[in-house]
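Hello forum,

I keep getting stuck at the same step: I have a sequence, I want structure tokens, and every attempt I make locally crashes halfway through. Rather than fight my setup again tonight, could one of you with a working pipeline run this one for me? It's a single chain of 182 residues.
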Amino acid sequence: MIMIMSEVFDDLFADATVRDFAAGETLFRAGDRVVSMMLLRDGRADLVRHTGDGLRLILHRAGAGQILAEASAWSGVYHCDAVASAACVVAILPRQIFRARLTADPDLAERWMQTLARSVQAARVRAEIRSLPKVADRLDAWLCERQVLPDKGRWQDVAAELGVSREALYRELARRRTKARG
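Reply #2:
Ran it on my machine without issues. Output:
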């Protein structure tokens, strides 16, 4: 799926400006005016929102071949931050050109709508996982979707995806290790 969509988006972004971002660098911030659309050609970027309690939530993790913050095509401002979670290469296209190309090509617009529908479905799964009351239940549901826990240095990202504190996730992982040994 990503390969097919990447090819569609490669055509859409054929004449876009390309920029490299280092890991940890901000691509845009919540409240910034939306002036362009971004296609990740390589690497990974996270859409992040910070709660009033200081909790960092990863709303979406985008990889190569994906457009970042799809809904921003119809928004005046970004509603979250975008941060390179790994070094990435981003194609940047003015939003007016992006929208004009969709309007001019009904087949492209149809494929774009399919992409948006899949994004909504994925967002609903993430919301469902975050609605579970226990960290253990959230982790189980997340593992069923992702099927692999990353290296220890990336566990804080899992906590952010689950909508729990790092400490709560670390306690749950320690409980599971203890249970597996005993």
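The domain at 2-105 is CATH 2.60.120.10 (Jelly Rolls). If your local run keeps crashing, start a new thread with the error log.
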